[in-house]
Amino acid sequence: MSFEEDDRVVLSDKHSEFDGEVGTVAQVVETMFGDANYTVEFEDGQEQGVPEDNLEAAPEDEE
Q1: How confident is the model over 9-60, as pLDDT tens digits?
Q2: Considering its fold, how many domains does the chain have in total?
Q3: What is the edge-to-edge ordering of all strands in the sheet holding 45-51?
Q4: Range of the domain at 31
Q5: What residues have CB less than 8 Å from 56, skipping those under 6 apart?
């Protein structure tokens, strides 16, 4: 599943301080291999270069 800017997502990355948190896709960058990397903004910061495999759509009722 690909994401677009302003989509709400949950980050799944045990090495990130934002693991398990809901954020908003701020930027989508295509790599030279045709994959997408995302910049996700959270309440307390942002995570850059997030691969699609580390994101899932946030539940609709998640604030």
Answers
A1: 999 999 999 999 999 999 999 999 999 999 999 999 999 999 999 999 999 8
A2: 1
A3: 45-51, 36-42, 22-30, 8-11, 55-57
A4: 8-57
A5: 1, 9, 10, 12
